[in-house]
Amino acid sequence: HLASLGLAWGQGSDAGWITAEGRVMADLADGDIEAKLDLTGGYHITPAWSAMVQLQTGRGRSGDDYAKLLPSVIYRVNDRLRINAGASHALTGDRGTGLYLAGWLDF
User: Fold this and answer.
1) What pLDDT, in 10s, does the model give residues 38-72?
2) pTM value?
3) 85 and 100 in contact (C-beta within 8 Å)?
4) Is 80 buried (19+), middle (13-18) or exposed (0-12) by CB count in 10 A?
5) Quick check: 99 and 89 in contact, CB under 8 A?
6) Each residue of 10-41: b (16+ CB within 10 Å) or e?
7) Strand 81-90 relative to strand 2-12, pairing
8) Positive or negative CA dihedral for 98, 38, 7, 52?
């Protein structure tokens, strides 16, 4: 059984947006606690293109701390679909780097 408590804040404008999202999760069976904080900033370059950077930080269930930096670009295909492409770079731990491609669907 897991218990979770989270809090999110965001502010948008014509120029872009910023958000902060935090969460604490506890395993009620063994008492393990996991926590995370994500900070995101985005900027609208044109009506179709935006740039975004996210800092993901936290502590995993095994007690390992992590921090990742995720810069990306977002292309607005239409009013319902956006494509997000970027990189993920670990600032702590294994320091691995990867690429990602994601779709956002508004409904």
Assistant:
1) 999 999 999 999 999 999 999 876 678 899 999 99
2) 0.85
3) yes
4) exposed
5) no
6) eeeeeeeeeeebbebbbeeeeeeebebbbebe
7) unpaired
8) negative
